Amino acid sequence: TLYPARRNGQPAAAIFEAVAPDGYAGRIRLLIAIRADGSIAGVRVTQHKETPGLGDYIEPKKDRNKTRPWITQLNGLALAGSDDKAWRVVKDGGRLDYYAGATISARAVARAVHKAARWFEANREQLFSPEGGKP
Fold it and tell me: What is the pTM of this model?
């Protein structure tokens, strides 16, 4: 599901309901906000079954790092001006930190957000057309 947002009649952002199908314990449901310029405004996990105390750090309230929760690394990322490394965890040669023993959770979220950003980039013009992307 996708919700385009406008501010003063101008494209502002799009909010996606997305699913990372490949979490350690199954699907991870996400809300992904992408600004009209293509940069990630924020990501939040809405549902998951990742291991408590290990993989559940993808959810800010369960992340031990309260100053900079793991998921905030995705804020500001955009396809423009970044390479694929920006969207992968360090273990896979990327730039996103992860917690040892819980790579699969971080990898799944990062992949889903990257996929949403690519879809947004490919469909931005239609999404923000006066018809709102409706046929």
Answer: 0.89
Taking the CA atoms of the chain, what radius of gyration do you get in angstroms? 15
Long-range pairs of 77-83 with CB within 8 A, sequence gap ≥ 24? 77/39, 77/40, 77/113, 77/117, 78/37, 78/38, 78/39, 78/40, 78/117, 79/38, 79/117, 79/118, 79/121, 80/38
Q: State pLDDT tens for residues 54-74.
A: 888 899 898 888 999 999 999
What one-letter code names the amino acid at 95?
R
Task: Indicate the helix (H) or strand (E) that contains 124.
Answer: helix 103-127
10 Å CB burial of residue 127 (0-12, 13-18, 19+) is middle
Whole-angstrom distance, CA of residue 43 vs CA of residue 46? 10
Determine the straight-line distance between the first and last CA of the chain, rounded to whole angstroms: 16
Return the bridge partners of 43, or none: 32
CB 12 within 8 A of CB 36: yes
Tell me the β-bridge partners of 97: none
Tell me if 133 sits within 8 A of 127, measured CB to CB: yes
